[in-house]
Amino acid sequence: MRAMHDPLSSQWPFMKMHGLGNDFVVVDARAQPVSLDAPLVRALADRHRGVGFDQLALITEGDDLTITFYNADGSHSAACGNATRCIAAREMAQSGADRLNITITGRGSLQAVRDADKVTAVNMGAPILNWQDIPLASDVDTLALPIDGAPVATGMGNPHCTFFVEDVSAIDLATRGPQIEHHPLFPERTNVQFAQIIGPDHIRMRVWERGTGITLASGSSSCAVAVAAARKGLTGRTVRIDLDGGTLNIDWRADGVWMSGPTAHVFDGVLTQSFLDGL
């Protein structure tokens, strides 16, 4: 199904945002109905012939602000922390509110807040630690998976596989990432992180996202790495995580995993009717 739009309009609006270089196309369907399918999402994700993004976020009506996420390959994603923060920052700036409830399709209701410095934080919810719900294909120790390197499995609405290594710069992420993403232990595929412990509250991380590939940053992956490191006793529950695109602050509290960091609304644009008709 192609995008539905006002027949009196030849243009289809979108926003381009990023958090630490982890970039998104955001479509607000509250003003005009929009329906997406995988071919359209893939066409939009093309960085040469489309707009280009790591994930696409579709905003729809609901009791809260409601967001559905898509990966660059057209598949659904149940969580995207950086996009959630970017959208929340824009909504709160427009309304003047300092708190916002957000419903994430497949994840539930999350809360966003902004502080006196206008930095936006999002509670990404409680981590998922039991193997059935991550999900994994079999009952194994989630703190030491039977994969070379004994990675940790964590669910943040989407599955994550975290390797702790001595030097993340030495990892061939382009090779290792897709191998682990499609490992049979993860029936829904997985995000993959390689993390290096710098100190008790400091981690360096690189990430491969399922359905997208190498990204400069990932909010849900950062939350998963922080949870995995704390569970293994490598760090405390509050950490700074340095990614290729910048730094996020993660705080695993009793009410969930909070993530804060910079956001950017880069530009607003429109898709032309000729682009949509050419799909």
Task: Please tell me about this protein's structure.
With 279 residues, the protein is an alpha+beta fold. Helix content is 18%, strand content 38%. It has a 17-stranded mixed β-sheet that branches.
| Strand proportion | 35-45%
Q: What structural class results from the helix and strand content?
A: alpha+beta
CATH topology of the largest domain, which one? Diaminopimelate Epimerase, Chain A, domain 1
Counting DSSP H or I runs of 4 or more residues, the number of helices is 5
Low-confidence stretches: 1-9
CATH class of the largest domain: Alpha Beta
Would you summarize the structure shown here?
This protein is α+β, with helices and mostly antiparallel strands and 279 residues long.
Could you name the key traits of this structure?
single chain, globular, 279 residues, 18% helix, alpha+beta, Diaminopimelate Epimerase, Chain A, domain 1, 2 domains
Topology, please?
Blueprint: E1 11-19, E2 22-28, H1 38-45, E3 55-60, E4 65-71, E5 76-77, H2 81-95, E6 99-104, E7 108-114, E8 120-123, E9 152-155, E10 159-164, H3 173-181, E11 191-199, E12 202-209, E13 213-215, H4 219-231, E14 238-243, E15 246-253, E16 256-261, E17 264-272, H5 273-277
Parallel strand pairs: 2-3, 4-6, 10-11, 12-14
Antiparallel strand pairs: 1-2, 1-17, 3-4, 4-5, 6-7, 7-8, 8-16, 9-10, 11-12, 12-13, 14-15, 15-16
